[in-house]
Design brief:
flavoprotein; single chain; Rossmann fold
Length: about 425
């Protein structure tokens, strides 16, 4: 594949050298186009040595090959990393002030931006408007990572790690992990959800809530958050902006998401309501406690000298999924697609599938991902098996079943979500 790697003028430009190496070692031909400002951080000689191609910033070099037109036309993928606030603004405005912005205007294939800048720059309304403009035109703008920035500051605006950009950018061009591993054998896998959620905002809840009993103890559950994190990564790879509402996790937060951290069911409820109006897809994969202690003791509950056992009264937590569905119905706004999760055990009264179907009807969501859970099932494991239920399923029919790693299931679910969105919101 022929890739153009645009490099913006930020200190994170040094990371793009590792990104370039990842592309070339995967067998891709990479033409680097730095901005003039970026050469103050990484020189042209470095890019030429690592890419094996001559490098220029000017439209007046290699005029005989009409470089400013040819490079964009020939590229199968254009990746801009880091994409500074200035570069995003110039791209959104359609300026052609150097070789890179000329090439962006001539692009025929996917265009992928990996932003890097200070938090205030990223959050500024002008930058957010430019990002929205680029996404509306079909470009994929990855969410920046959160972390240590230049100097002592921390926050969103950090360039995602090269491995994450590499995977997401190739996904944007329609290259799956299976295709990458089989590239040397020229065996391609054409099934991919890549880029299908470009311009969409996906909100994913993940992890298990913790309901405090006293300053030391809480009621919790066995959820690790692995499935939710995998869904967030799959949605990012499909080009979406991902808002990640995380309760307790036993897995790293995916790089590139907008992170919202919560602890309790009530905090998660507030975060979901705040996000619902500005999201296209809501995926409720968090394990939300059904009950919480009626009282949260201000001091540690101690064993009594008389040997009496404490009495703990539980109260019901709100049904966040059902509320989201009801709010959408009442307001006529909100997510176009709401996906619920159901962790069931089954019992003598009904099977896991029967309980799942009842829950789908009761909740009213658009899709329900059902799995059987237990001490050695699903929670904390890397593999899973789910069934995807829909109100459109024919009575008595077997729902779609998916098994494999949680990453595999996440990619399949994101593909299904894209299909449902295509059906609900046809292109005009």
């Amino acid at each position: 594949m022929r890739i153009v790697l645009g490099v913006g003028g930020g200190i994170a430009a040094y990371k793009s050298a590792s990104l370039l190496r990842l592309f070339t070692e995967a067998g891709h031909s990479v033409q680097v186009i730095p901005t003039e400002a970026s050469t103050r951080f990484v020189g042209i000689a470095t890019w030429e040595a690592l890419s094996g191609h001559p490098v220029s910033t000017s439209v007046f070099d290699a005029v005989d090959t009409v470089n400013h037109v040819r490079l964009g036309h020939e590229a199968d993928l254009i990746v801009v990393a880091p994409a500074t606030a200035d570069l995003l603004a110039r791209a959104a405005a359609g300026l052609a002030s150097d070789l890179l912005t000329n090439t962006l205007l001539m692009a025929r294939g996917p265009v992928f931006f990996a932003p890097a800048m200070h938090t205030e720059m990223w959050n500024h309304p002008a930058t957010q408007a430019n990002v929205a403009t680029l996404r509306s035109r079909g470009a994929i703008v990855m969410e920046p990572a959160s972390g240590r920035l230049t100097g002592k500051d921390s926050g969103p605006g950090r360039l995602p790690e090269p491995d994450d950009i590499f995977a997401a950018a190739l996904a944007a061009a329609g290259v799956t992990k299976a295709e990458k591993s089989a590239a040397e054998n020229t065996d391609q896998d054409n099934s991919t959800n890549s880029g299908r959620l470009a311009g969409k905002t996906v909100t994913v809840t993940a992890g298990g809530t913790r309901e405090p009993l006293d300053p030391v103890r809480f009621l919790g559950n066995r959820s690790s958050g692995k499935q939710g994190a995998a869904i967030a990564e799959a949605a990012l790879a499909a080009g979406a902006r991902v808002r990640f509402i995380a309760a307790h996790l036993e897995t790293p937060v995916p790089s590139g998401v907008d992170l919202v951290q919560v602890e309790t069911a009530l905090e998660l409820r507030e975060a979901v309501h705040a996000a619902a109006a500005s999201t296209d897809v809501l995926v409720m994969s968090a394990a939300v406690a059904d009950f919480r202690p009626g009282e949260n003791a201000e001091t540690k509950i101690k064993k009594r000298d008389d040997g009496a056992d404490p009495v703990i009264t539980l109260v019901r937590n709100p049904d966040i999924l059902q509320e989201a569905v009801q709010c959408r119905a009442e307001s006529g706004t909100g997510p176009a697609l709401i996906v619920g999760f159901a962790a069931e055990t089954g019992d003598g009264s009904a099977s896991v599938l029967e309980y799942g179907r009842r829950k789908l009807e009761r909740k009213g969501c658009d899709l329900l991902v059902l799995n059987q859970v237990g001490r050695s099932l699903v929670f904390g494991q890397d593999n899973t098996e789910v069934r995807i239920l829909s109100p459109q399923d024919a009575p008595g029919s077997e729902p779609e079943a998916v098994a494999g790693s949680k990453a595999d299931v996440a990619r399949h679910l994101v593909d299904r979500i894209a299909e449902e969105l295509d059906a609900a919101l046809p292109s005009v």
